[in-house]
Each structure stands twice: as C-alpha cells, then as structure tokens.
Design goal:
Strand content: 15-25%
Helix content: 25-40%
CATH topology: Metallo-beta-lactamase, Chain A
CATH superfamily: Ribonuclease Z/Hydroxyacylglutathione hydrolase-like
Shape: globular
Bound molecules: zinc ion
Oligomer: single chain
Number of domains: 1
Amino acid sequence: MAGLVEVTRGVFVATHDFCTSTTTVVAADDGTCLLVDPGISPAELDTLAADLARHGLRVAAGFATHPHWDHVLWARALGDAPRFATAAAVVATAADRERGLALADEFAPGTDHDLYGRLTPLPDGAECVPWSGPRVDVVEHRAHAPGHAALHVVDAHVLITGDMCSDIEIPLLDLDAADPLGDYHHALDLFGAVADVQQVIPGHGHVGDGAELRRRLTADRHYLDEISAGRGDDDPRLTQAWLVRDHRAQRAKISITRTG
Ligand SMILES: [Zn+2]
C-alpha cells in the first residue's frame, strides 16, 4: 500500500493493492478524522492505523459507502468509533454477510470477522455524516449496490464516489435491482448536479479533477447506452478477465430487458 497522499487540504487518500482500492481520510482541525472505506488486507489496515497516528489523527467516525465486502472492513488498531452507512446498506451487509466474509477470507486472508460489517445506520433523514469535523454531505442512491452513498466534502470540493466514476472499471450494475439501468443513470445525474467538484475519488482507480469527473460521467453514460444496445465490448476499461465477464453478464441482461 502506498502511504496517505494529501489530495487537497485536509483530505488524504491511501491506495491498496487489491483492485486499486482507495481509502479516504477527511481530517478535522481538532486532530480527529473521518475514515471512508478502510481496506483491504489486515496488514494494510494496520499500516493505515500507523499512518494516521503519524499524522496525529484519531478516527472519530468511519463510513462504508456500500455493503460490498471490500468496503466494510476494519481493524482493532483503528479504534472503536461508530462506522456509519445508509440504513439500506446496513441491512444489505447483514443479509450478505456469509458471502462477504467468504470473499474477504479469499482476497484478504486474516480479515477480522468480529469487526467485519459492524455498521451503524445513519439517523433517519440525515443529510450529512454525524460528526464534528468538516461538513460531509451524503448523496444516497441505489446504483451498483443497495444503499450506496457518495460523500461530498463540501468546503474541500471533493466527491468520494464509492464504486462509481472509476477510470479503470466500467459501471458495474446491481443486476438484482428492479431497474439497474435507471438506478445508475439517476446516480450519475445526482453526481453531475453536485456543484463545483474539484476532486473525484473513486473507490477503485485514480483521483481526478473536475474536468475528469465530467469525462467519467460522459464515459459512463455512453457505456450504459452501449449495453442497452447490446454493445460496449470496446470500452477501454475492459482490461481484465473479471471485468469482461461482468460486462457480458450485464450487457446480456440489460439488452434483453430493453428489447424483450
Ligand atoms: Zn462494490
């Protein structure tokens, strides 16, 4: 894992080996921080805890952007702050716990089962993360997974998008949803409406600026249109076997739904 990189004042990103996963740290002036999607291996989580200590930061709150296994991990060294997620994400994490733990054991051996997915639902109607640091708005939607939320660090002009807006992964749809395509378009519209984003931090991939966010939104909408027409095989992000497999599965399902 690379160490924490400050992408703008008070916002740090660590990048991990598994699928170029990222962890975002939002620092407050009082030495506390909000920790978003900490990952992935036990060694990386311990390194993250050591890096935070080196920066003089104590975790006041965690946040899991969505219920997938690689976003709901934790380690004792990170402390026992509440780890927030949307209410729908908390329910989905519990429902999918067995499968999630099996994946964690496969790709992050030694994962702490006790701490896996120990999430606190956001209060009803919460528009921002309940902590005393910089205002972080919650942009809830249901693309990619139930209860997915992007986070908007308002004063820093940062949008943390979870498993969306990636430069290295195609849009990955929740094929169990009633309207995976509509859900995805809706989420992209929400992101496009966030004012004055200067940094986008995807859960997998690389940090981009505001122009790069707009480029990714356009590329993702184009991809959705392509799979609706049974195409999309030429997306430049289809560089790995698992992405090609997922692409074929969603292209087949979406184009059938649209024409059948
Ligand atoms: Zn995911």
